[in-house]
Write a structure and sequence with these properties.
CATH topology of the largest domain: Arc Repressor Mutant, subunit A
Number of strands: 11
Protein name: Transcriptional regulator/DNA-binding XRE family transcriptional regulator
CATH class of the largest domain: Mainly Alpha
Strand order of the largest sheet: 7-6-10-9-8-11
Radius of gyration: 25 Å
CATH architecture of the largest domain: Orthogonal Bundle
InterPro entries: Cro/C1-type_HTH, HTH_RamB, IrrE_HExxH, Lambda_DNA-bd_dom_sf, ScfR_C, TransReg_Diox_bact_type
Order of helices and strands: HHHHHHHHHHHEEEHHHHHHEEEEHEEEE
Family: Belongs to the short-chain fatty acyl-CoA assimilation regulator (ScfR) family.
Strand content: 5-15%
Helix content: 40-55%
Shape: globular
Organism: Plantactinospora soyae
Keywords: DNA-binding, Transcription, Transcription regulation
Structural class: alpha+beta
Distance between the termini: 35 Å
């Protein structure tokens, strides 16, 4: 059982209510010295004491839930790359998570201010680091890839429409027709000028390319319903984020509409129950719900509803060149924003065996271990000779959750030698002796000597302690 240390939060809660340590100890029926140890993280919170605290202060037990320490540490390392050692950042994230989040928020505001300044002075080099895609990815990452308002609304609508697995298109078609007077028109892609779908409000028609598979058609229909019926919810979320750029607003609207569509076609409780029953076997889930591999993996990464959580996954989509076109996470996997990802990651190995599921135990520099599942997906457009698209889809979770996955069968999740040492990306990775390194880490000096050569391409100087 994981021990809960929440001394700083308990002390802050007590002080906010103006209660002395002696008085609170009396109300909790424990000694003042015991309470003092809890507040200084010398003793963990027991279940009995936690329940009494919630009764005294009228707070939910989730108030004392452990914060996502790996996620906070990864973001702190980006915000403070040269100002603190990893153990110090870990202690800050563990003991004072609210302070850590404040530091991260300040860094995020700094980046936003820097972007605005770059816009004013016309420096496009500065703006390039904060593209609309980056900002939308950051939104979902901060929310652990879960948007409760849309997820719950989609599940309620699915129940209202009687959406059934594998037959969602019929229910969505009826909704569009009966409520909005929208007709579905299927056309070949050439007649749609290369588009996969196009909604024409003047004719109340939703044009879908014949190249779309059944699940992809359902997603387009569901997204259109989101834009028509839940525009106010979507707009409110966008307004809260204060996005000034029109392109970012449009991309966010598309992302939220697609999120709603997936939650409508794969309703939360039904999908979570199937995932748990099938031990997160993605092949079986794709057959069960008649949806594609990528759609199933993406939905698995969103199952973070309080009191009904699935395995917290990180989800990525990359191409052969290493470009990451999607990255969302319900866990603390430290995605790099400084360019490039780790070539030792099995997401890239998947390209060598198209269509085959690859598994990997990956160890990060901070000691955190993940089980990663990767497989390629292929999309074709047009006939013979037309170029297609090939991506590798990766889905990863911390090894403490891996026992719930069929992919962990036969693996020694705890053996040190069984784990592949990877990092967030060469420019932020702290592994001193990695022979695969493609760039020196930011703010680290190279240990160069004209009279010697090394197997390691970027030998690094030891940092002074």
């Amino acid at each position: 059982m994981v021990k809960t240390f929440a001394g700083a939060r308990l002390r802050r809660l007590r002080e906010e209510h103006g209660v002395s340590q002696i008085e609170l100890a009396r109300q909790l029926a424990i000694s003042p010295s015991y309470l003092n140890q809890i507040e200084h993280d010398s003793r963990p919170l027991t279940v009995a004491v936690l329940i009494r605290i919630t009764e005294v202060f009228g707070v939910d037990t989730a108030y004392f839930a452990p914060h996502d320490t790996p996620r906070l540490v990864a973001q702190l390392r980006e915000a403070l790359p040269t100002r603190a050692a990893l153990p110090d950042l870990t202690e800050l994230a563990t003991r004072l998570p609210e302070v850590a989040e404040a530091v991260i928020d300040l860094y995020r505001r700094y980046r936003q201010a820097n972007d605005q300044l770059a816009e004013v002075v016309g420096d496009r080099e500065l703006v390039a680091g904060r593209s609309p895609h980056d900002q939308v990815s950051d939104f979902f990452y901060r929310r652990q890839n879960y948007v409760p308002d849309l997820d719950e609304a989609a599940e309620a609508l699915a129940a209202e429409l009687g959406v059934r697995r594998g037959e969602s298109r019929l229910a969505l078609n009826d909704r569009l027709a009966q409520r909005h007077g929208i007709r579905i028109v299927r056309q070949d892609t050439d007649s749609l000028a290369g588009e996969l779908h196009r909604y024409r409000p003047e004719t109340r028609t939703l044009h879908l390319s014949t190249s779309l598979r059944a699940g992809q058609e359902a997603i387009r229909m569901g997204a259109q319903i989101a834009l028509l019926e839940y525009a106010d919810v979507i707009d409110e979320i966008i307004e809260e984020e204060k996005f000034d750029d029109l392109q970012t607003q449009i991309l966010m609207r598309v992302g939220l509409a697609n999120y709603f569509a997936a939650a409508l076609i794969l309703p939360y409780r039904e999908f979570l129950a199937a995932a748990e029953t099938l031990r997160y076997d993605i092949e079986l889930l794709t057959d069960h719900f008649a949806m594609g591999w990528e759609s199933i993996c993406h939905r698995l990464s969103t199952l973070q509803r309080p009191k009904a959580r699935g395995v917290p996954f990180s989800f990525v989509r990359v191409d052969r060149a290493g470009n990451m076109s999607k990255r969302q996470s319900a866990t603390g996997f430290p995605f790099s924003r400084s360019g490039g990802t780790c070539p030792l990651w099995n997401v890239y190995e998947a390209f060598s065996a198209p269509g085959r599921v690859m598994t990997q135990i990956a160890a990060m520099p901070d000691g955190q271990r993940y089980l990663w599942i990767a497989r390629t997906v292929t999309r074709h457009h047009g006939g013979y000779g037309q170029p297609g698209k090939v991506f590798a889809i990766g889905l990863g979770c911390e090894t403490r959750h891996a026992g719930r996955l069929v992919y962990s069968a036969g693996m020694d999740l705890h053996a040190t030698e069984a784990a592949t040492p990877i990092g967030p990306g060469c420019k932020t990775c702290t592994r001193m002796t990695c022979p695969q390194r493609a760039a020196a880490p930011i703010s680290r000096r190279l240990d160069l000597d004209e009279n010697r050569s090394t197997f390691i391409p970027y030998p690094l100087k030891e940092q002074a302690t």
